[in-house]
Specification:
Elements lengths: L11 H15 L13 E5 H5 L9 H9 L4 E5 L4 E2 L12 H4 L7
Length: 105
Protein backbone atom coordinates (compact mmCIF):
# COMPACT_ATOMS: atom_id res chain seq x y z
CA UNK A 1 0.00 0.00 0.00
CA UNK A 2 2.97 2.22 -0.32
CA UNK A 3 2.31 5.36 -2.39
CA UNK A 4 -1.45 5.22 -1.88
CA UNK A 5 -3.23 7.72 0.32
CA UNK A 6 -6.22 6.48 2.19
CA UNK A 7 -9.13 8.84 2.52
CA UNK A 8 -9.64 9.91 6.07
CA UNK A 9 -12.97 10.80 7.58
CA UNK A 10 -13.64 14.54 7.46
CA UNK A 11 -12.62 16.48 10.50
CA UNK A 12 -15.10 18.18 12.79
CA UNK A 13 -14.04 21.56 11.39
CA UNK A 14 -14.74 20.44 7.82
CA UNK A 15 -18.15 19.08 8.80
CA UNK A 16 -19.02 22.31 10.56
CA UNK A 17 -17.92 24.37 7.56
CA UNK A 18 -20.01 22.21 5.23
CA UNK A 19 -23.01 22.66 7.52
CA UNK A 20 -22.59 26.45 7.45
CA UNK A 21 -22.39 26.45 3.65
CA UNK A 22 -25.56 24.34 3.38
CA UNK A 23 -27.41 26.66 5.75
CA UNK A 24 -26.26 29.74 3.82
CA UNK A 25 -27.39 28.22 0.51
CA UNK A 26 -30.73 27.20 2.03
CA UNK A 27 -31.38 30.68 3.39
CA UNK A 28 -30.32 32.43 0.19
CA UNK A 29 -33.90 33.06 -0.99
CA UNK A 30 -35.28 33.87 2.45
CA UNK A 31 -35.55 37.57 3.08
CA UNK A 32 -36.39 39.12 6.40
CA UNK A 33 -38.36 42.18 5.47
CA UNK A 34 -39.49 45.23 7.33
CA UNK A 35 -43.21 45.92 7.78
CA UNK A 36 -44.91 47.23 4.66
CA UNK A 37 -48.05 49.23 3.98
CA UNK A 38 -50.68 47.48 1.89
CA UNK A 39 -53.45 49.55 0.33
CA UNK A 40 -56.67 47.93 -0.78
CA UNK A 41 -60.15 46.86 0.20
CA UNK A 42 -60.69 44.85 3.37
CA UNK A 43 -63.26 42.17 2.64
CA UNK A 44 -64.02 38.66 3.75
CA UNK A 45 -62.08 35.82 2.18
CA UNK A 46 -65.17 34.09 0.76
CA UNK A 47 -66.05 37.15 -1.32
CA UNK A 48 -62.45 37.52 -2.47
CA UNK A 49 -61.81 33.88 -3.40
CA UNK A 50 -65.14 32.35 -4.39
CA UNK A 51 -67.09 35.35 -5.67
CA UNK A 52 -64.14 37.15 -7.26
CA UNK A 53 -65.29 40.56 -6.02
CA UNK A 54 -63.07 43.53 -6.76
CA UNK A 55 -64.44 45.46 -3.79
CA UNK A 56 -66.81 44.73 -0.91
CA UNK A 57 -70.55 44.82 -1.50
CA UNK A 58 -71.01 46.80 1.70
CA UNK A 59 -69.40 47.41 5.06
CA UNK A 60 -72.25 45.53 6.75
CA UNK A 61 -71.72 42.48 4.56
CA UNK A 62 -67.97 42.34 5.28
CA UNK A 63 -68.53 42.90 8.99
CA UNK A 64 -71.24 40.25 9.33
CA UNK A 65 -69.19 37.68 7.39
CA UNK A 66 -66.15 38.40 9.59
CA UNK A 67 -68.25 38.10 12.73
CA UNK A 68 -69.57 34.77 11.45
CA UNK A 69 -66.01 33.43 11.16
CA UNK A 70 -64.84 34.32 7.66
CA UNK A 71 -61.27 35.60 7.66
CA UNK A 72 -60.74 39.15 6.45
CA UNK A 73 -58.26 39.73 3.63
CA UNK A 74 -56.89 42.77 1.84
CA UNK A 75 -57.54 43.00 -1.91
CA UNK A 76 -54.97 45.36 -3.47
CA UNK A 77 -55.66 47.46 -6.57
CA UNK A 78 -53.53 45.11 -8.70
CA UNK A 79 -55.67 42.10 -7.69
CA UNK A 80 -53.21 40.67 -5.18
CA UNK A 81 -54.94 39.17 -2.15
CA UNK A 82 -53.12 39.53 1.16
CA UNK A 83 -54.15 37.19 3.96
CA UNK A 84 -52.72 38.73 7.15
CA UNK A 85 -51.82 36.25 9.86
CA UNK A 86 -50.09 36.51 13.21
CA UNK A 87 -46.37 35.86 13.41
CA UNK A 88 -46.91 33.25 16.11
CA UNK A 89 -47.04 29.48 15.89
CA UNK A 90 -49.71 28.33 15.60
CA UNK A 91 -50.77 31.36 13.65
CA UNK A 92 -54.14 33.05 13.81
CA UNK A 93 -56.12 35.42 11.63
CA UNK A 94 -56.12 39.16 12.11
CA UNK A 95 -59.88 39.80 12.15
CA UNK A 96 -59.81 41.80 15.41
CA UNK A 97 -57.24 44.20 13.91
CA UNK A 98 -58.91 44.37 10.48
CA UNK A 99 -62.56 44.60 11.60
CA UNK A 100 -62.53 48.43 11.93
CA UNK A 101 -61.54 48.58 8.23
CA UNK A 102 -63.95 45.91 6.95
CA UNK A 103 -65.72 47.02 3.79
CA UNK A 104 -63.43 50.03 3.34
CA UNK A 105 -60.40 50.85 1.28
Amino acid sequence: MKGRRLLKTPSVTAKFFLLLVLIAVGLDGVAISAPVTVKGYVLDSACAFTKGLEKPISRECATSCANAGSQLVILADDGTIYWPIAGTTPSSGQNPRLLPFAGRK
